[in-house]
Structures are given as C-alpha cells and as structure tokens.
Amino acid sequence: MLLCSTPVAVKAHQTADVFINFASxxxxxxxxMEALHQPTxxxxxxxxEGVPEADTKQLIAYAAQHNKVVLGPATVGGLQAGAFxxxxxxxxxxxxxxxxxxxxxxxxxxxxxGGMSNEMYNVLSRATNGLxxxxxxxxxxxxxxxxxDHCLRYQNIPDIKLIVVLGELGGYDEYSLVDALKTGQxxxxxxxxxxGTCAKLFKSEVQFGHAGAKSGGASxxxxxxxxxxxxxxxxxxxxxxxFEGIIKQTYDQLVQxxxxxxxxxxxxxxxxxxxxxxxxxxxxxxxxxxxxxICDDRGEEPTYNxxxxxxxxxxxxxxxxxxxxxxxKRQLPKYATRFIEMVVMLCADHGPCVSGAHNxxxxxxxxxxxxxxxxxxxxxxxxxxGGAVDDAARYFQDxxxxxxxxxxxxxxxxxxxxxxxxxxxxxxxxxxxxxxVELLQKYAFKYFPSTKYLNYALQVETYTLQxxxxxxxxxxxxxxxxxxxxxxxxxxxxxxxxAEIVKIGYLNGLFVLARSIGLIGHALDQKxxxxxxxxxxxxxxxxx
Length: 544
Hints:
Elements: H1 6-12, E1 18-21, H2 28-36, E2 43-46, H3 53-65, E3 69-71, E4 77-80, E5 84-87, H4 93-98, E6 107-111, H5 114-127, E7 131-136, H6 147-155, E8 162-168, H7 173-182, E9 190-195, H8 222-232, H9 243-256, H10 275-280, E10 295-296, E11 303-304, E12 307-308, H11 309-314, H12 319-327, H13 334-347, H14 355-365, H15 370-378, H16 389-401, H17 406-415, H18 435-447, H19 452-464, H20 475-489, H21 495-503, H22 506-529
Parallel strand pairs: 1-2, 2-3, 6-7, 6-8, 8-9
Antiparallel strand pairs: 4-5, 4-7, 10-11, 11-12
C-alpha cells in the first residue's frame, strides 16, 4: 500500500514503531525529522550517505531528548535473527540461510560497517551458534547511535551471551565502550577488533571508505583503540586474521562453562534459485508468455521483420512498406505497397454522416477523450459498415475458384438469404459511380500482373445492375477482390497463406487503419470548434 505522507502512514499503521528512510541525502533530514515527531516511531534508520553533519547532530539531539534511537546515517540497518531486519542488512535470502540468520543464536554484534557486518554474520555462523542481533551504526563522523549504546542494550538482553564488536580507526566512539567495560556496566564477554592498523604504514593522514574512518591523532588509531579495549577487559586478537579464532575460543568456553546450551540445527528448506540468476546460469528454461514474430526491440534499434529503423528511414520505404513488413511479414513489391497506401488514403474518411464518424462526433461533443472518441467510431465497423472487405474477398474467391458463373453465384446467394458482400451502395449507382472504386480499378489494371478476381467481380456487377441501379461494386468489394489479385499474382504467398489472410481479418484491418485517420480528424475537429453536447432532434425520431 502506498501512502502519501509519513503522518498518514503512521495513522494507518499505529503499531509500527520503526521507520526506514531510503531518501537521498538531500531530503533525508526533513523526512527523518518528520518521522521522529511521530509519537509511535521509536527507531529510525537513515540509509543515505552524505547527510550534512549539522543535520545529523540535530537528529541525534532530538532523538536523545525524546528517548528514540537513530541508526545511521550511512547504515545498511540491523536485524534480529529469526525475527526481522531493518534495511538491506544481511543481503540476499541465500546469504541469510548460509549465515543461519533464520533462527536466533547467542551473539550480539555491532559494527560501523554494513559490508563488514555481512562478512561477520558469516564468521559468527561458523565460529558460534549464530547471531541474536546485529547492528551497523553507519560510517559517518557522527552516527545516530554509538557502539556502546548497543553493547549496553546487549548487556540487558538475557539471550545474548557474547558481544562481538568491530570498530574502525577515526573518532573516539570505541572509548565509550572502554569506559563501559571499566565501570562494569558491561560484564558479558566482549570480543573486539578495531580495523585500520595498516594506516600506520602511510606517512600522511589516510581517508578510508567511511567519512569517519580517517587516521587522525594517535588516540584515533586502530592500535591505540585495540590496546585500550584490551586493557579494559575486552578480548582482542593480534590481528583481524585471528578474530574468528578468538571468537570461537570464547564461545566454546561459554559452552563449556554452561552459559550456552547449543540447540540442534533444524532442517532448512533449500532456497529456490532466483529466477534471473538461474536463467543466466542456464539452469532453467522459462516458458514464454508472449510470442512475437514481426518485430524485435532487444538490439541497438528496433526492427520490423528484421529490417532496422535505420534502413527504413534512409531507404526507399513508405507506410505501405511498414504495413507489408508488420502485417504480411515480407517485403511486398512497390506496386503492392503503393496500392496499400492508396487504400489507406481513399478510405480515411467518407464524411460526417456515416455511422463511424457520427458516433465519433457525438462522443467528442460529450467531452470524452480522443481515444474514447476513436473507439466509439471503430466499434460501428462491421458487416453493415466497412467490415465487408473480408467477406467480399472470401465469397468472390470461393465463387471464382469454384467455377460458378456470375449469375449462378448471385442467385445462389439469394437462395441462401445472403447479400452479396461488396455489391450495393446507399448513394452511388450505375450512373453515379464511386470515384474511389474507379481510381483503384484504374491503378490495378495498369500495374497488377493479374486482375482475375476483380474481373470476376465486375461480371457479377454487370449481372446485379440488371436488377437495380444501385447494385454497383462498392469500395469494400473492390478492395477485397484486388487484395486477392495482389496476394495471388505477387507469387509471395501460398494458397494456404492467402486463405489465412482472408480468414483472420487482414483486409478489414486495412479499413480500420485507414478510417482511424478520419475518425481522429472528426474528434479533433469537434473539439477545435468547441461544439456543445449533441442531442438528436425530436422531429427526426418516429415515436410509435
């Protein structure tokens, strides 16, 4: 659930008392302070690095005054094994299982470094019965909480029997732990190491990875801090290489003394491989959810049926070529792509009175968006309006290939009660031909290798005109028969492919594509003219 602000989120989840702030250093202070002001928030983890020190000091002061805890800035968070984690600490699920963080151990761990925390969780899983709680306080100069703050908490947690601390050179944070050990505030065994002993090898001051990890005065050196911790009673190895060994030695002694009773390991289910990692490793094959054979956008530039955008833009290609590549999956000859463009141009619009345009206009005047206007017009396309192209191609092809004479075809359709698709017009007639049909026929006769199906349709028209003057070939019939001629005469398609093209709606698709141009034009026209809501006049309705 996404909530618009911290106060709203707190109100919606009143039992949540930890706030994890992933905001950048630019806004981390404001958002953290807003969270600290919420009465139910007790702990806040600031993940961002680079938070201004003055802002951090204000966060620390406010948290101290109101008995709240700040982890960070520059922290990966913390976790309680087998319970929860704050932030990104411990990494992947595989790492959590490998480090046995799925159940509590007996060790409380605290460090400044998030990366080293993850490493130490692995060390503790080998050297002890594992982690109970781990915290990375963050590597900035002024962390919101100190190493000793968490060690003092661990002192008061009965299930924690051993405290492990990993500090680093720079600053004086480790000395507060020295004081706690000297005064007896911490009595549990503490195994500690301060990293950065190599800084002595450099002649000048060295800045390590964290803002607070820099070699300053002698008391800030790793050597002095390790010596002070050891003198105060902490168990300190000679080097980091000996850290794991001395942790194990201390843990084994606690077991021997009866302070820790190791529990048998429970069986852990194998963590399934991450899908992306498994795919990269070649360990799984993932079934595809979508199959596409007309284009590919995975390379440097998209391709249409293996033809690159660069080729389309720089070569002799037009919209008809694009349609041929994406619809027919092949490069059609120029006379064919030019014919496709002609169909798009001639069918783009047929005035505002046809059903599709009328619906679009009414919808636009109702204040609807452009897509809604377009769809309202497209939904009228069907057997009675613009959708007869496929049917015309299908019926004319069956009749022509079946050897039916034109009159036999017409009479057979009549007996079946089916109108001959592609024949007949509400306005055009024998003496008032559709100019679009004439232009398409003229082009086909000039450029098509064969017009077999158009010739057959014209013979059918000759017969139907004997019955009525308006039973002329309309644009649907002309497009349908010419597309049959185009597909057959191009020698690029098998008979099965031609049948499939007609069956699944390619030809009607061309009318839909073309008419969309006009429908969009009508919608924009009405909006540009700021036409009011349309209401059909009463005197044009027959009430019965």
